[in-house]
TrEMBL record:
GO annotation terms (biological process): regulation of transcription by RNA polymerase II
PROSITE patterns per UniProt: HMG_BOX_2
Cellular localisation: Chromosome; Nucleus
Positions of the HMG box domain: 5-71
Bias type Low complexity, positions: 72-82
Record flagged with keyword DNA damage: no
Top-level division of the source organism's lineage: Eukaryota
Protein's UniProt name: High mobility group protein D
InterPro entries per record: HMG_box_dom, HMG_box_dom_sf, HMGB
Region (Disordered) residue spans: 71-111
Major site of localization recorded for this protein: nucleus
Any one GO MF annotation of this record: DNA binding
UniProt organism field: Drosophila albomicans (Fruit fly)
Length: 111
C-alpha cells in the first residue's frame, strides 16, 4: 500500500525553498539557523505574497485530493502513524508537605 500523502508546504516554506540559495550567496558562510532567521525577516518585509499564497493553496488542494484518493483506496487517516497522538505522561501524585502531615496527626489526636 502507498504511504499517506505528506502535508503541503506553507507559502513561507515554498518561498524559503526558492530563496535559500540567494540568501546563501548574499551572505557567504552563513549558518543554517541564520539563513532561516534572514528568510523570516525578508518574508515579513515582503509586501506581495500572493504568488506564494496561491502556490500554497494549490498545494493544499492537491494534498486534500491525494488524501481523499488514499482513503478511498483503503488507506486510513491513522495509517503509518499519520494521526498518532502522543500519550500524555501520567501525572505524579502531589506530595504532602510536612506541615500537612502534622495537621492530620493533630486531627487524629483530638478525636
Amino acid at each position: 500500500m502507498a504511504d499517506k500523502p505528506k502535508r503541503p508546504l506553507s507559502a513561507y516554506m515554498l518561498w524559503l525553498n526558492s530563496a535559500r540559495e540567494s540568501i546563501k550567496r548574499e551572505n557567504p558562510g552563513i549558518k543554517v539557523t541564520e539563513v532561516a532567521k534572514r528568510g523570516g525577516e525578508l518574508w515579513r518585509a515582503m509586501k506581495d505574497k500572493s504568488e506564494w499564497e496561491a502556490k500554497a493553496a494549490k498545494a493544499k488542494d492537491d494534498y486534500d485530493r491525494a488524501v481523499k484518493d488514499f482513503e478511498a483506496n483503503g488507506g486510513s487517516s491513522a495509517a503509518n502513524g499519520g494521526a498518532k497522538k502522543r500519550a500524555k505522561p501520567a501525572k505524579k501524585q502531589a506530595k504532602k508537605s510536612k506541615r500537612d502531615d502534622s495537621e492530620d496527626d493533630d486531627d487524629d489526636e483530638s478525636e
